[in-house]
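Work Package 3 committed the consortium to producing structural models of liganded targets before the mid-term review. Because experimental data for this complex are still outstanding, the team generated a predictive model from sequence and the ligand definition alone, so that downstream docking and mutagenesis planning could proceed in parallel. The input record is reproduced below exactly as it was submitted to the modelling pipeline, together with the SMILES string for flavin-adenine dinucleotide.
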Amino acid sequence: MEKTKAKPQLKMLHDKNLSTQMAKNYNYDVLVVGGGPAGLSAAWGAAKKGLSVAVLERDEAIGQNVRTSGVTWIKEAKSFGIPSECYNEISNYAFYSPNNYVIKKSETAQAAVLDVRKTYQFLAYQAASEGADIFLRTNVTDVIKNEKEKLSGVKATSLKEELVFNSKLVIDASGFYSVVGRSLGIALPWKRFGAGAEYEAYVDKVSPDTWHLMVGSQYSPAGYAWVFPLGKNKVRIGVGVGKPNSQADASKLLIELLEKRPKPLDDLGRIVPVEFHYGLIPNEGLRESTIDDNLIMVGDSAGQANPLVLEGIRYAIEFGRAAGKIGGESVVRGDASRESLKSYEETMKKAIGSKIAAAVKVQYRWLNLSDQEWDKEIEIIGELSAEEFLDFIKADFGMTSMLKLAAHHPKLALRQLFQIIKNTGKDSEA
Ligand SMILES: Cc1cc2nc3c(=O)[nH]c(=O)nc-3n(C[C@H](O)[C@H](O)[C@H](O)COP(=O)(O)OP(=O)(O)OC[C@H]3O[C@@H](n4cnc5c(N)ncnc54)[C@H](O)[C@@H]3O)c2cc1C
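The resulting structure, written out as tokens with the ligand in place, is given here.
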């Protein structure tokens, strides 16, 4: 298919809000709403098919407002081609409860703390190099439909100017707010979600290859806190709160944490915040439907995050690329109907549906644990090998190994924990 560069045209809009104004009008094969990891990866995937693609991002720069702690996994980062200068490698994983502590060590580094801005901009340049356009400061406000009442583009505002973008396919990668899905009325607001507040900060000293996860009421009444190093004097310190379980304000908890400095913050010397981050993450599992006629939802917009440790970047990239590829192929075939997009949803659900469902169940258990119960839970987790521990945190519940743990581990408590995962696996396979 020939790549047609969009040229703005002026168009009179027959809309009650915009009726008196002339709107700039753009035509693209594929529109991607949101320039986070899902959107940039989707744009790359669709542009590689030779289609004209635009990413619409409301912020002034890609990665400008960091809404994530940026922990991911080296294996996946490498498979996406993310250069190693975009991340700090982690090989020790410390877990604290009020009166307990475990540390797991892997022989080689498995986890990575991303330089989020650098990584997202890497993805942006990758998409642009395949021909995708990026519109910054462009806030998508509504959808437009064709004469058959099918989705045919979006309305946006940029610098107080009204814009209209027409397309054959829209990819909703707008994150937590699912702006396109919600405008169409096919996606409801999330009822269960996590709210996280974080400082990127200078510290006098930190071990650059060790992450710290902290649980219990002194950190968060329903959730956890973290210290993720980016280097020997640079960390992300944050607190997450599960909603609606707790009404606590994550930003206030973060300030308290820096004042009270419970372990391991007491070991960091001076902590000097340099940047504040805040974000929301869905915590209900996958949306039942992530496609519609001329629409694919991807990333947080579709609920594709492992809620156990608020981790969604690798899935956003993986399924962003898949959305761009499969959606792009549908456009090339001249049919982006729901039926034509089905393989995106089926492949994605097969790959992560049961993992995310099991992670949601473990997370619900975690949100209700008392301090004493957390002390025991940490002991149970301490029984896992480093490899099992990492699979568990990643929600990479390979059914065979989890079935083994659920059935044969000598400790009853560990068998019970893995029964949750095993039963979810059965549910979702049924
Ligand atoms: C506190 C916190 C900590 C986290 N820590 C981790 C972690 O350590 N590791 C990990 O893997 N994941 C983590 N996550 C989750 C991770 O950030 C998300 O899963 C991931 O960012 C999802 O990517 P996305 O592209 O779908 O959405 P986002 O990254 O949210 O990107 C959406 C983009 O859409 C834009 N947008 C939104 N509305 C509009 C609009 N109307 N018009 C135009 N543009 C719009 C936004 O500006 C944004 O750039 C964390 C989340 C939170 C909240």
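Reviewers should note the following from the model. Residues 33-39, 56-59, 67-72, 139-140, 173-175, 177, 179, 196, 198, 240, 279-281, 299-301, 305, 310-313, 316 surround flavin-adenine dinucleotide (CB under 6 Å). These observations will guide the Year 2 experiments.
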